[in-house]
């Protein structure tokens, strides 16, 4: 990995030099646009609407248009004057209970590596965060923008997660929920039973992106054939519609519970000798992202 930023965490009077790395990456297959007739790559031209000429990227500045239509152009020199452009410090503002940070506020994640020959301060901060049930709120300036961020520990490494500002989260206002009836006790009980039957420990390695896997197969077949085209797969039969009499939530939940029970019975392995226990566990089928699709679909259709 290549660091994208260098600075230091200000933890009271303790200074923790760090390097910042992007913690996540997109595994989606990338496409570009081509001319359908001859396969030629499509390019975009930056054309000025005033003079009609193509403009080089180095000659482009940023402009802001006010609600009244007034336009203001800012150059790189203007942005360089802003305080955020010179800030290479991550000050810890306060420590807050972790459960008070709504997950909807989380934006991007970054790994922090100690940037010192003696990373004792880094290890001290990481150990402290692991021992307390709180998250450090910090200020983080990256690419001329100041962000609020949460600082925590993951597998012994400090992780910085930028947070959205409060006004960047849209307010919820759905009139359709205003007069919605509250669930009945029987419905709640059955829903909780269904949840319990589908509960387990979260292991992200058990899930795979089936769409990307199948898409890669299509691309590999196209490359192998040399034509660039692959026959479309046969259309699948539409899912059978629920019975007409299954119209209320209780009935839908009951069907979901029954389906969940049948699935667990089918997936339950036959008893084996103790000597083969580890081998059987190793051969267990890998789960996919469609782990509970059948149950969720039945519940939604019935609702």
- Tell me, rounded to a whole number, the average pLDDT: 79
* Largest beta sheet: strand ordering: 1-2-6-9-8-7-5
Sheet of most strands: 7 strands, mixed, barrel
How far apart the termini lie comes to 47 Å
And the CATH topology of one domain? Answer: Ku70, Chain: A, Domain 2
CATH top level label of one domain: Mainly Beta
What's the tally of helices? 7
The radius of gyration is: 27 Å
User: What general outline do the C-alpha atoms trace?
Assistant: extended
Beta-strand level of the residues, as a percent range? 15-25%
Level-2 CATH architecture of one domain:
Beta Barrel
Number of beta strands: 9
Model regions low in confidence, pLDDT < 50 over at least 5 residues: 230-236, 242-247, 274-303
Secondary structural class? alpha+beta
Estimated helix fraction: 25-40%
What's the SSE pattern? EEEEHEEHEEEHHHHH
Give your account of this protein's structure.
The model is unreliable at 230-236, 242-247 and 274-303 (pLDDT under 50). Helix 3 packs parallel to helix 5. Strand 7 (134-142) and strand 8 (145-154) form a beta hairpin. The strands form two sheets. The protein has a seven-stranded mixed β-barrel. Strands 3-4 form a two-stranded antiparallel ribbon. The chain is built from seven helices and nine strands; from the N terminus they run ββββαββαβββααααα. The two termini are 47 Å apart. Helices cover 27% and strands 22% of the residues. By secondary structure, it is α+β, with helices and mostly antiparallel strands. InterPro entries: DNA_bd_Ku70/Ku80, Prok_Ku, SPOC-like_C_dom_sf.
